[in-house]
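User: Thanks for the earlier help. One more: Putative glucose-6-phosphate 1-epimerase. Can you show the sequence and predicted structure together?

Assistant: Of course, both are below.
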Amino acid sequence: MDLSTLPAVTVLSDNVTIVEHEDVKLVRVIHEKANAAISLFGAHVVSYQPKGQQDLIWMSQQAKFDGKTALRGGIPVCWPWFGRIAAPAHGFARNSEWQLIEHRESEVGVIVSLGLSTNDNTLAVWPHRFDARLNVEIGDELKVTLEVTNTDSQPWKCSGALHTYLNVGDIHQAKTTGMGPEYIDSLQDGKVCQGGDELVLTDTIDRVYTQPEAVISVADAKLARTLTVENQGHNSAVLWNPWAEGAAGMGDMQDDGYLTMLCVESTLHAPSIEQGKELQPGESHQLLTTIAAK
């Protein structure tokens, strides 16, 4: 996405402005290290472009910036659950309006912090009190940290994901390594399967890799770079691409969109809310993903 031409609604500093794209406000970062943009709707990273590189993040050309529909592409924040284990799918965080808490900048980059706390809308969906922060560190690499805190008087359970869509030149030439040997195949009713050390896609994929290595790499031959994804606070990594049939069935993805994207997600996976990670009152958990190109 090229957001550089949008006029600033609010100037926060030399490097940080608020802009508006259709019905959504975005925090736009223009820095000598990298440019980036984060939607306040969903705390959704929609762009990260290090100096001299094409964007590392894929956004659908048909994403709906209406302030109601979850954005297709970028880094959706899936929380307090991941998947279709409750409604709405992937939780309410990606459909909520977040607040800009602070921004900090230096010669090495910019940090943007967004917040979401318990409100009437969240209580109507999930009857627990919480505080969520998304810290986005923009520099030579992109580091996204979701920190959630139980502010209730009772424990609650959650799952979640940082649902990163990576931008690749040609999915047929993209080779992924580091995802680990075992995965739960959502296309085979959750069957546990064994995979190889390398993955080159020839069809749709929707897998929960249960033993990922510390760093997952996507060698992108067409763009002559390797994207690295380092996750923390997770218990799995989800890899997803809808392929031609899936893309054609989505109203917010162009039919050929699958050719230039691959989701590699930092995931706290649970088959049900009851099997999610439990946080005691006052306890916090961080889910992180760090993305870079070399």
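User: Great, one quick takeaway?

Assistant: The chain has one domain: 8-293.
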